């Protein structure tokens, strides 16, 4: 088995979800193995973990009761800043490209009405820019809060073309009595990881913003940056290489 050049940890076979060392976040060298496992659940449990209870695994992985101290570390804050800058750039890119693209596609379908097309393009652009500004303002101004998960629901929607989408809604009651909903479409990882009654902290600048207070009965964590479910032993996400909140 290969070892990490940076920290010496044993490296798994490289797949799309094991692209980074889960002990230090360094890139796993080489090419992805074809026909390997699809998720962590498919991989056999390492022999040293077999037969352990969830509590024993959490303890062995260094998980303590309470919200993670790691959030305030320079490393974590830096990773969060970088992820948000990338997110902002992607949003701006989408905002700038979408309207000309819509105009172009509409123009290819109905090339005769130039004035209407340009008008439609400008309207789409204005709407997209407003939506992006709202998103950015929401991320920058939302405050951290602590609360409890009070309900979990799913909504299934079917578009006209028959594409089904599921929205996973986790409702929390904040410590000052406000109801807050967290919604994810077609991404059940955080929804499945949380349960009604869990104490949580909301981190507005994270992609997966809800952190569980008591992780000592878990064998899994959800990456706060990309939303991939990780074995609790992972200090860094195997899929995106960023630090886990544990
Ligand atoms: Zn490493
Ligand atoms: Zn990740």
Topology summary:
Elements: H1 54-60, H2 74-109, H3 114-141, E1 145-158, E2 164-174, E3 179-185, H4 189-193, E4 199-202, E5 210-212, E6 220-222, E7 229-231
Antiparallel strand pairs: 1-2, 1-4, 2-3, 4-5, 6-7
The structure holds zinc ion (ZN) (2 copies).
Keyword list:
246 residues; binds zinc ion; 4 helices; two-stranded antiparallel ribbon; alpha+beta; 31% helix; 5-stranded antiparallel beta sheet; OB fold (Dihydrolipoamide Acetyltransferase, E2P)
Provide a short characterization of the protein structure.
The chain has four helices and seven strands. It has helices at residues 54-60, 74-109, 114-141, 189-193, and strands at residues 145-158, 164-174, 179-185, 199-202, 210-212, 220-222, 229-231. The strands form two sheets. Strands 3-2-1-4-5 form a five-stranded antiparallel beta sheet, with no helix packed on it.
Q: Which class of secondary structure composition applies to the elements?
A: alpha+beta
* CATH topology term of the domain at 69-73 and 145-231: OB fold (Dihydrolipoamide Acetyltransferase, E2P)
Query: Strand order across the biggest sheet?
Result: 3-2-1-4-5
Count of helical stretches: 4
Give start-end ranges of low-pLDDT stretches. none
Q: Mind telling me the CATH class of the domain at 69-73 and 145-231?
A: Mainly Beta
Name the shape in a single word: globular
Roughly what percent helix?
25-40%
CATH architecture of the domain at 69-73 and 145-231: Beta Barrel
Bound molecules: zinc ion
Report the C-alpha radius of gyration, rounded: 21 Å
Order of helices and strands: HHHEEEHEEEE
Percent range for β-strand residues? 15-25%
Mean pLDDT over the full residue set: 90
């Amino acid at each position: 088995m290969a070892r990490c050049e940076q920290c010496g940890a044993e490296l798994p076979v490289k797949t799309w979800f094991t692209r980074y060392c889960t002990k230090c976040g360094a890139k796993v060298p080489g090419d992805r193995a074809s026909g390997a496992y699809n998720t962590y659940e498919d991989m056999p449990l390492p022999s040293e973990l077999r037969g352990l209870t969830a509590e024993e695994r959490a303890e062995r992985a260094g998980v303590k009761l309470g919200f993670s101290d790691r959030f305030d570390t320079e490393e974590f804050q830096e990773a969060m800043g970088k992820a948000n800058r990338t997110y902002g750039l992607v949003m701006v890119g989408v905002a700038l490209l979408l309207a000309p693209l819509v105009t172009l596609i509409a123009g290819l379908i109905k090339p005769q009405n130039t004035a209407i097309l340009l008008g439609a393009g400008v309207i789409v652009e204005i709407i997209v820019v407003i939506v992006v500004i709202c998103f950015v303002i929401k991320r920058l101004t939302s405050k951290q809060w602590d609360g409890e998960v009070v309900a979990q629901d799913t909504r299934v929607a079917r578009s006209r073309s028959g594409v089904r989408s599921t929205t996973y809604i986790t409702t929390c009651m904040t410590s000052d009595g406000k109801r807050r909903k967290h919604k994810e479409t077609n991404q059940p990882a955080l929804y499945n990881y949380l349960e009604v009654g869990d104490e949580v902290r909301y981190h507005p600048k994270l992609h997966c913003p809800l952190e569980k207070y008591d992780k000592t009965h878990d064998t899994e964590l959800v990456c706060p940056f990309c939303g991939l479910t990780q074995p609790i032993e992972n200090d860094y996400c195997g899929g995106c290489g960023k630090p886990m909140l544990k």
